[in-house]
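Page 42, continued from yesterday. The earlier attempt failed because a stray header line got pasted into the input along with the sequence. Redoing it now with the clean sequence only.
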Amino acid sequence: MSNPYIVHIMVGDKFTLPLIDELNKLFKTQQHHFLVLGQANNSKAQNENVSFLKSPFRSNVFQNLTTVAKQFYKAELIVMHGLPVLHYFILFPFALKKMAWIIYGGTDLYLYSGDTLNSKTIWLNRLRKFILKRVKIHLTHIEGDSKLANNFYQSKAKFIYHPVYLSNVIELPHKPVVNNKISSKKLNVLLGHSTDPSNHHLEIFEWLKGMDNIQIYCPLSYGSYNAHKEKVKQNGLELFGERFIAIEHFMQFEEYKAFLETIDIAVFNHKRQEAMGVTLTLLSLGKEVYVNSSTTSFQSFKKRGFQLFDNTLLQTEKYNLATRNISANSSLLKNYYSKQVWETQWKQVYNINWIDEFA
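This time it went through. Structure tokens are written below.
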């Protein structure tokens, strides 16, 4: 057999549905099948090799399990996008030995801990560990997430570098990015990326409140943490007055990209890997990006030579207007996040000889 048969299982969203269309363009549709959790209504991913699993699960048990069983038995490799419905793998344990996991780096790695643990979450943790311990391959562009997963779940999965989604494919400007020379003009600062408290907005405010030459833009249109959103707006206005602007309307990608072109520096304070799409876009535009140095994303980027900066510099230096060397980022983005790299890595996944290595 020259081509493997690959089954993807995923939640239908703004990342996965466009991927279906692109993979169908890149490969023959009979090479793969997509099991999608979510409604098919108005989806662009309508195709004969796409099965939308019906919800609620309890009302559609027989039909869903029949569809999953047929595809899992046929598959030579099962690609699990994030952590959709794990109980499918408990019901079909034979599928565990041919599973690759696309790590999202969010709740799939950091879900239950501390006061969130109860009888239900303890059981779910055990279920996750049983399944994820048996994963053969990790597909992600953040090597640190693969190491964390192997540590959390006592697994021995092999890390395979992969941009995975089109949101991680970067189109570079026609002219090369040079060192970002910040003048004494007012600096446009992007602070955080959503209403989620994990942005730690108030901590960043403390770092920046002594800086007079900044204009802060704080995206608060994404996320459902309304109480935290109001707290951020109140504190931002109290500390910075008209120099603080809350962005509360949702922008389409091209509009958001045009907005990011006006930014001088971006500050993120997540304690884990997050906001990767906007980070990559900022790097492609030649912007200075400050992140928490303890995150797997910071460590992976630095290991590959990218110029990101530890956000503690904002505490110790109060942004001394020094020139930061970011000229290497353009060529590195081309090497790791171009459309060509994206296609090459998916072709590797779809290579039967590569799959045989993990049999």
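Notes: The mean pLDDT is 86.
Reminder to self: strip header lines before submitting.
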